[in-house]
Amino acid sequence: MNRKELNPEASAQAAYGARLRSLRDARGWTQDELASLMDYSGRHISAVETGRRTPTRQFSLSADHVFELEGAADTFERAWREIRHGALLQGFPEFIGHEGRAVELRLYEIGIVPGLLQTPEYATVLANSAVQRGAISETQAEERVSMLMQRQSALTRDRPPMMFVVMDESCIQRWVGGHDVMSGQLDRLLEFAARPNTVLQVVPFAIGERRPFNLPVTLLTLSDLSMVAYAESQTLGHLDRETTAVLPLLTAYHQLQAEALPQSASVDMIHEVRKGTP
Predict the structure, then answer these.
(1) Cα–Cα dist 121/151, whole Å
(2) Residues paired with 227 in a beta bridge
(3) Interhelix angle for 179-193 vs 120-132, to 10°?
(4) 124 Cβ partners below 8 Å, 6+ apart?
(5) Which pLDDT value is given to residue 88?
(6) What are 6-54's pLDDT values in tens digits?
(7) How far apart are CA 48 and CA 226, in angstroms?
(8) Contact assessment for residue 12 and residue 93, using Cβ atoms and an 8 Å cutoff
(9) 8 A C-beta contact, residue 167 and residue 259
(10) How do residues 198-249 score in pLDDT, each as one tens digit?
(11) How does DSSP assign 87-106, residue by residue?
């Protein structure tokens, strides 16, 4: 029997198919047996596994049910959303796949609150603004917010990751939405800082030229202790797994943390901004 070799690194869709096959093999099921459980044909299962057919949301929900993944951080529905959003930025679909399984996250953001800490209201204001500028459609805006909420679910899984978040002061000083939106967002930051698995620091404007990053950066530590780095500009995303490229970013991140306000002082600053929200 010919069995096509799969390369999960090729694309988000290839990773989806490889995982489907891996879980099926682990249970000792044939394609026809899985097809019967999912109410699809064996030919359909084969086409999805080998990347010849793009999975649908309904197919993904059925796979989550059969493999008992409903409510998990790494569902097939989440992977389907990665495939749908694969055109956003190069490297992003693979990045969020790693993000949902990381044991430790280090984030640095400029200008806006990091996506993983945004309230639905704050995220919606940003997405609607992109619609008004003609950058995305209303449907894409809804999907963007929905996908962000899916990503945030990784923070509340049974064993949540350790999270270090460093934000430029502009993230809390830049007013997004009305009073209720911004107040709610600042409250979310304060709640985040109070969790046992988080550290939140603000980098004050006074840091000046000592700020080591000019773009947002995310560093992920995976379960095997390897690290992944992701950085993006307005139109380009870059994912890097090479140690020689990631370690200098980790060093720069530690330098940034040393320059940032301690968490207690950062929380005090957020409280002050919260009191002065228009």
Answers:
(1) 16
(2) 221
(3) 130
(4) 141, 145
(5) 47
(6) 787 777 788 899 999 999 999 999 999 999 999 999 999 999 998 888 8
(7) 29
(8) yes
(9) no
(10) 999 999 999 988 888 888 999 999 989 999 998 876 556 677 878 888 999 9
(11) TSSTTHHHHHHHHTT-SEEE
CB 13 within 8 A of CB 54: yes
pTM above 0.85, yes or no: no
Q: Which of 95, 33, 30, 82 is nearest to 55 (CA)?
A: 82
SS3 assignment, position 243 = helix
| Residue recorded with tokens 């996250």 | 105
> Domains along the chain?
12-84 (1.10.260.40), 92-117+157-275 (3.30.870.10)
For the chain, helix, strand, coil in percent to 5 are 55, 10, 35
Q: How far apart are the first and last CA of the chain?
A: 68
Model confidence pLDDT, tens digit, residues 124-164: 999 999 889 887 778 778 878 888 888 888 777 778 899 99
Query: What distance in Å separates the CA atoms of residue 43 and residue 73, rounded to the nearest whole number?
Result: 28
- Contact in structure between 261 and 195 (CB atoms under 8 Å): no
The span from the CA of 220 to the CA of 107, in Å, is 9
Rounded Cα distance between 187 and 179, Å, is 12
Q: How many CA atoms lie within 13 A of 267 on its CB side?
A: 13
Looking at the DSSP bridge assignments, the partners of residue 167 are: 109, 202
Residue 164 β-bridge partners = 106, 199
User: How far is the C-alpha of 256 from the C-alpha of 258, rounded, in Å?
Assistant: 5
